């Protein structure tokens, strides 16, 4: 087992993939380390790299609004990414990068022990649910993995690019909240 402190130290010094070369900060994740719900995005962008925090740019602001609409805030959830260092020019992280970096997310998962994992966008869903995942076809489905509910919805950046995706995404956030409330009732 590893402690949060050990994990932070290890990740801050990680050079396991080439993304270490361009980073200003490693972005491990933030939020409630005892949360029942873990959100996973793609990777740090410009602002995240500069500040060392996930989802602090425009996509992050939208995510905050969506969380608020279902009565949640960053204090209640944990949020991380499939890669901890910013890909150059914000390109998608490559499978060979996230497959190495997922080692760190796995430790976060073990420490947090969430009941629900919400993948934000295609890359996280491919990395955590299955490689053939298609966001338009498979978003909103629930996948059970060793007692934990995994699901995926649009990445907030996709909602910023295409307004028509906002309504289904907001609806789906309500379904996620309902499931979270049900889990809390059972436990
Ligand atoms: N997009 C992501 O996927 N993650 C972040 O942390 C910020 C933007
Ligand atoms: Fe290490 Fe992940 Fe950063 Fe690659 S992206 S250097 S694996 S922390």
Give me the secondary-structure topology.
Layout lengths: L3 H9 L17 E2 L5 E5 L4 H6 L6 H12 L8 E4 L13 H18 L3 E5 L1 H7 L6 H4 L4 E3 L2 E6 L2 H6 L4 H21 L1
Parallel strand pairs: 2-3, 2-4, 4-6
Antiparallel strand pairs: 1-3, 5-6
Bound molecules: uracil and iron/sulfur cluster (SF4).
Task: Give an overview in words.
This protein is α/β, with parallel strands linked by helices and 187 residues long. It is built from eight helices and six strands; from the N terminus they run αββααβαβααββαα. It has helices spanning 4-12, 46-51, 58-69, 95-112, 122-128, 135-138, 156-161, 166-186, and strands at residues 30-31, 37-41, 78-81, 116-120, 143-145, 148-153. The chain has a six-stranded mixed β-sheet with strand order 1-3-2-4-6-5, with helices on both faces. It is globular and about 40 Å long. The structure holds uracil and iron/sulfur cluster (SF4). Residues 41-45, 48, 54-55, 59-60, 81 line the site of uracil (URA).
Strand order, biggest sheet? 1-3-2-4-6-5
Number of helical regions: 8
Instruction: Assess the beta-strand content as a share of residues.
Output: 5-15%
Instruction: Give the topology string: H per helix, E per strand.
Output: HEEHHEHEHHEEHH
> What is the alpha-carbon Rg in Å?
15 Å
Unique ligands: uracil, iron/sulfur cluster
Mean pLDDT: 97
Secondary-structure-based class equals alpha/beta
């Amino acid at each position: 087992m590893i402690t949060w402190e050990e994990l932070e130290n290890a990740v801050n010094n990680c050079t396991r993939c080439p993304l270490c070369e361009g980073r200003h900060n490693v972005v491990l994740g933030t939020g409630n380390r005892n949360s029942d719900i873990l959100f996973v995005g793609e990777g740090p962008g410009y602002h995240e790299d500069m500040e060392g925090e996930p989802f602090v740019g425009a996509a992050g602001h939208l995510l905050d609004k969506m969380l608020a609409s279902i009565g949640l805030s960053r204090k209640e959830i944990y949020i991380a990414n499939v890669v901890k260092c910013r890909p150059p020019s914000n390109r998608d992280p490559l499978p060979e990068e996230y497959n190495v970096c997922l080692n760190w997310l796995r430790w976060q998962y073990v420490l947090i022990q969430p009941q629900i994992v919400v993948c934000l966008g295609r890359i996280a869903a491919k990395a955590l649910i299955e490689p053939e995942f298609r966001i338009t076809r498979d978003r909103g489905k629930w996948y059970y993995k060793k007692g934990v509910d995994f699901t995926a919805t649009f990445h907030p950046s996709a909602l910023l690019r295409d307004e028509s995706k906002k309504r289904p995404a907001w609806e789906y956030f309500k379904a996620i909240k309902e499931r979270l409330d049900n889990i809390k009732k059972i436990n």
